[in-house]
Structure formats: structure tokens, C-alpha cells
Amino acid sequence: MKVTDHIKNANGKTLFSFEIVPPVKGKKIQDLYDNIDPLMEFNPPFIDVTTSREEYVYVDKEGLYEKNITRMRPGTVGICASIKHKFDVDTIPHVICGGFTKAETEYMLIDCHYLGIDNVMALRGDAMKEEQYFKPTDGGNVYASDLVSQIQNLNKGQYLLDDVQGEDKSDFCVGVAGYPEKHLEAPSFMSDLKRLKQKVDAGADYVVTQMFFDNKKYFEFVEAAREIGINVPIIPGIKPIAVKRHLQLLPQIFSLDLPQDLVDAVESCKNNADVRQVGVEWAIQQSKELKAAGVPVLHYYSMGKSNNIKAIAKAIF
User: Are 70 and 54 in contact (CB under 8 A)?
Assistant: First the structure.
């Protein structure tokens, strides 16, 4: 079922969802199941599964180091299919521009269609670790809006090769990312919002926000989005702080502000167990206010760990 249909069928009730990261190569999927299982009691209508970019590794070849490209995590589509089968829940694979040609993207989307996956999250993706800025892949999509257009073309039965014919067209519901405090590469909040409008105009059906820790940022973002004609559902994304180093890492990586009350509370903690509890309590208060405001879904970034997300969901749902 499409995300937009789940929201419609909820009749104003706030839904619970979360996002997971595929395990690194070599780990069994049971580890992933063990982290998902405790959250199923809160009836998530869908679960997001991220896609990782390729990475460079250097292999010693008799004293000379050879540069190779690898992917450190298993395929997102296979994990989505496995979770969908195991838990009977809709799964949403993240489809990214970086590291994929348009042809590779089309094959991934065709696989999703075959497997009965109804939703995809269309993202530009990050720069590679060795690159300062994002560089488009040769033959790939440059912007997320281009990726949305490709998905919508496939929904119309328009394949990259004109001689491909198919009456069983895909009908993907497409999600995109929004940034309440602007994307780190955007020159201004409004220019970033215009980028989001381009994605919606290209056919995006809903928006999931980057994490934020001040609900005022989310409410102002939604208001500004509505003012320029973005009328699709905007789902808030929430991540509980778990370790002290998040005070430095999160603002640096995601270009966001942390409320001073939260910073003070984390800095006063004696260990990361205390930090984790502060993060849970902060996210609970965030979630209560957002739910009272009638947000369609509360979407949690779990990063593969479920204990803190379960504690938050237990207090909210």
C-alpha cells in the first residue's frame, strides 16, 4: 500500500514508522530482525531501508596498492523484500542518484515492481567519503528531482529503451527529503525550499524531513512550504541523541542547531547511558508536541538499534 494511502486511511491518527540501515557485509539478517521485532508492537505501516554509496578500498597487490570500489552493505531491495515477507509490512527502499547510472536505477525499480514494493524514497545521496562535494555519476541522475522524474516516467511505462513495452506499469508512491534547517549545501533556506518544490512538481507524493531537535523549526518549515504551494504530506523525522559526541557530529554533518537546553542536559551527563536517557526524554517531548499538532506520521531514525526507539514509542503510541 502507498504511504499516502496509509495516511489517508488513518483518518487523522498519527502513525509510527522508522528507518533502518542495512547491516555490514558478513552479518546475518537475523540481527536486523532482532532489532525490528521489538518495534512491531506499535504497528508501523511501513519501514524505510537506506541505501549506501560505494566506497573506495585499497588492496595490497604484492606491495602495490590497487584502488577498488566496493559496497560495504548488502542490497537494499533484497533486504526490503525479506522484511516485507518476514513481518508483512510495507518497506520503502531508498533510491539514490550517487553511484548509480539511470540504467542501474531502472533495473532497481523494475525489481521493486516485481516484488510488489509500492513506495520508494528518491534521494540525491551524499558525496563519497574522499570527495568534498557531490559529483554526479556518469550516466546517472544529477538531482533528486531528476530521479523523481525518472520514476514517474516508469510509472507511465516509459523505459530508457524505447523498444521496451509493458502494460503492467509501475505505480510507485515517491517520497523525498526536506530540510527544516536547509540542506548543508544550499545557499539559503528559501533556495532549498525551491529545490523541494521542484521535487514535488516532478511528482513527489510526500516529504520526510531531516532530523531536527527544535519543533519550531519543523512548524516554520511546513508553514513556509505551504506558502509556496507544497501541499503533500510532510512527515517529521526524529533521531534521539545517544552519545556525547553527537553534540559535535550532528551539527557538523547535518548542518543543524541543537537547542541549548538539550546541549546543557547532555553535557551534564556522566556517561553515555545517561546521554541515551536524555535523548529518549527529549524525543518523547518532541513527539508529544508533534502528535498533538496532528502530524501524519512520526518517523524515527533508528540506525539499526531499537531500544531507545521502543522506549519513545511506548510513551507515545
Answer: yes
- Residue 298 contacts residue 16 (beta carbons within 8 Å): yes
User: Residue 226 carries which side chain, given as an amino acid letter?
Assistant: R
Report yes or no on whether pTM surpasses 0.90. Answer: yes
Q: How many domains does the chain have?
A: 1
At 85 the three-state DSSP class reads helix
SS3 61: strand
Residue 211 and residue 159 in contact, taking contact as beta carbons nearer than 8 Å: no
Q: DSSP labels for 94-135?
A: EEESTT--HHHHHHHHHHHHHTT--EEEEE--PPPTT-SS--
pLDDT the model gives residue 164: 63
In angstroms, the first-to-last Cα distance of the chain is 22
C-alpha cell at 317: 503510541
Print the domain residue range for 227: 3-316
Secondary structure letter of residue 22 according to DSSP: P
Helix (H), strand (E) at residue 178: strand 173-178
Cell numbers found for residue 83: 522484511
Strand partners, 121: 94, 175
Please calculate the CA angle 182-240-184 and round it to the nearest 5 degrees.
20
Please list the active-site residues.
Answer: 19
pLDDT at residue 298 in the model: 98
Q: 7: helix, coil or strand? A: helix
Q: What is the pLDDT of residue 72?
A: 47
215-234 pLDDT tens trace: 999 999 999 999 999 999 99
The pLDDT tens digits of the residues spanning 242-264 come to 999 999 999 988 989 999 999 99
Q: Which of 281, 282, 284, 276 is nearest to 303 (CA)?
A: 276
Under-50 pLDDT residues of the chain: 56-57, 70, 72-73
CA distance 315 to 280: 10
Q: What is the CATH number of the domain that holds 240?
A: 3.20.20.220
Quote the DSSP letter at residue 137: P
